[in-house]
Amino acid sequence: MKMLTVRQVAKISGVSVRALHHYDEIGLLTPARIGRNRYRYYGDDELLRLQQILLHRELDIPLERIKGILDDPRFDQRQALVEQRDKLAKQAKRYALLVRTIDRTIARLNGENAMRNAELYKGISPEKQAEYEAWLTEKYGGDMPERIATSRRKYDKLTDTEKQALMDELGEVELAWAAAMKNGIPADSRVLDPLLKRHRAWVAAMWDKPCPPEAYSGLADMHLGHPDFVKRYEAIANGFSDYHAEAMKAYATRLAA
């Protein structure tokens, strides 16, 4: 195989020349040889190693760990590709489901289908739920792990019918809430109180304990503090994330008065 220069490798791989230089400097991807002109030249082995580097990066593995993996004498490139393919195939399947969920949600908001409320959450992974729980614990500490565990135990005890009813209730409340926003009802309006009462009751049911005003207000701050929650509410309606939090905080203030 003809040797490729660093610029040629950058062009075909999409990796910048600067990044390739950095990979060389840290011993992650060393050129096959360096010419008299000081140009770096790469052969087939280096191109395959670069592919492995990029595949591992796609799986969110840091560079220092990738170097250890690839330099391990037990590393089997063929087996690694099989395992990476399996992981990516599973991700592709989940992402395809998420895309279908988003498309169907858009159609629902446009009045084009009768999507069930529970279908709003298809494709959301247990790993993502675990990420949220870790974020909550890190951000709020205190008894948060116990509160999460209590909520999980309560939810796990529910029948499929009960779980469906809970998600239907949340979906109905959120869609009516977003419709109020679109109709120009201010976020601090008492007109929203019946919806907010239902929402706070839903939260209490999920927590398996009362949701006092201060906790409900804190929940609003939490929703604004994590980008995934913001994206979720913005998927329901543009501007709904801020409106949703503002309404919760205003309702909490009225309850505490």
Describe the structure in your own words:
The chain is mainly alpha-helical and 257 residues long. It has three domains: 4-75, Multidrug-efflux Transporter Regulator, Chain: A, Domain 2 (Orthogonal Bundle); 76-115, no CATH class; 126-256, Globin-like (Orthogonal Bundle), CATH 1.10.490. It is built from twelve helices and three strands, in the order βααββαααααααααα. The model has no long low-confidence stretch (mean pLDDT 80).
Which structural traits does this protein have?
Globin-like; 257 residues; Multidrug-efflux Transporter Regulator, Chain: A, Domain 2; 12 helices; mainly alpha
How would you briefly describe this protein structure?
The chain contains 12 helices and 3 strands, in the order E-H-H-E-E-H-H-H-H-H-H-H-H-H-H.
Shape: elongated
Largest sheet: 3 strands, antiparallel
Q: How many domains make up the coordinates?
A: 3
CATH topology of the largest domain: Globin-like
Could you say what the CATH architecture of the largest domain is?
Orthogonal Bundle
Helix content: over 70%
What's the number of extended β-strand segments?
3
Determine the CATH superfamily of the largest domain.
Antibiotic binding domain of TipA-like multidrug resistance regulators
User: What's the arrangement of strands in the largest beta sheet?
Assistant: 1-3-2
* Tally of helical runs: 12
CATH class of the largest domain: Mainly Alpha
Q: Which structural category fits the helices and strands?
A: mainly alpha
Mean pLDDT: 80
Radius of gyration: 25 Å
